Amino acid sequence: MSNRQFKDCDGDTWTETAPGMLELTKIVSSAYVAPDPSPTSIEDVRDLHGPLTEIRPDVDVRALLAGVLEDMANEANRRRFVSADCAWIANTFTAKARELREGAS
């Protein structure tokens, strides 16, 4: 059995049970009635539920976001001579990046 998982455009989670076959394993909306739980081809899931995004547990999203925030803080710091608001924005981004990095460790 494959461990690959995907999210559809509604945020529901699909798990690959065999190559090219997906099964709905987590539903975001409690009002949604689940279809037959039997495996469905990945093409059919894409057609019925929109584009799929693979869930990659090997990628640390918090660290990636912290990096983006640090880049934004650096850019705001370069512009702070234009406005005091830029310094405040830079400090906010830096603090949030630090919080994300500490939470990821």
Tell me the quaternary state: single chain
Shape: elongated
Series of secondary-structure elements, N-terminal to C-terminal: EEEEHEHH
DSSP helical segment count: 3
Strand order of the largest sheet: 4-3-2-1-5
Classify the helix fraction into a percent range: 40-55%
Radius of gyration from the alpha-carbon trace, in angstroms: 20 Å
What class, by secondary structure content?
Answer: alpha+beta
The separation of the N and C termini measures 30 Å
How many domain modules? Answer: 2
Care to count the β-strands? 5
| Average of per-residue pLDDT values | 81
Main sheet?
A: 5 strands, antiparallel
In what range is the share of β-strand residues?
Answer: 15-25%
Low-confidence stretches: none
Care to describe what's here?
By secondary structure, the protein is an alpha+beta fold. It folds into two domains: 51 residues, no CATH class; 44 residues. Helix content is 45%, strand content 19%. It contains three helices and five strands; from the N terminus they run ββββαβαα. It has a five-stranded antiparallel β-sheet. Helix 2 packs antiparallel against helix 3. It starts with a strand and ends with a helix.
